[in-house]
Design brief:
Blueprint (H helix, E strand, L loop, with lengths): L2 H14 L6 H21 L5 H19 L5 H27 L8 H25 L2
Helix pairs in contact: 2-3, 3-5, 4-5
């Protein structure tokens, strides 16, 4: 697939978020995600279950803000599998770097960011979207 076709598809998807039937949902989901993310920032996430849950819910809503126009369960399932694959690759990289003695190149903050603030909400939204769509 040429890059121009891919860019056109992405542009069509993002403009469909703001079509008149989708605009109110997109705005409400975005507002909810921002409120949850700001609340988690105010409460803090260090050893605070409510702050962590608020952060996860905010990121999940942010994912769903961008993806709620998907109408097929298969798209959500593919997204969940892709994020599960990213988690597997992350663990493989961690194992290889540890086995080769390059632990100094492992950043705990970066790993936690990838796993818990990108992949886990992506999997949650993918599973819920696959269950509740179609």
């Amino acid at each position: 697939m040429p890059i121009q076709t891919l860019l056109l598809c992405m542009k069509n998807h993002f403009t469909s978020l703001f079509d008149p039937p989708n605009r109110p949902q997109t705005i409400w989901y975005f507002i909810i995600s921002v409120v949850l993310l700001v609340a988690s920032q105010l409460v803090g996430i260090s050893h605070n279950l409510i702050g962590i849950a608020s952060r996860m819910a905010g990121v999940c809503f942010l994912f769903y803000t961008l993806l709620h126009t998907w109408k097929h369960a298969r798209s959500y399932a593919v997204m969940a599998w892709i994020f599960a694959g990213i988690i597997a690759l992350t663990f493989a990289v961690i194992y290889l770097l540890s086995a080769l003695g390059y632990e100094q190149y492992l950043s705990q903050g970066t790993i936690m960011f990838i796993l818990f603030l990108i992949c886990l909400p992506g999997i949650i939204v993918g599973i819920l979207g696959a269950i509740f769509n179609d």
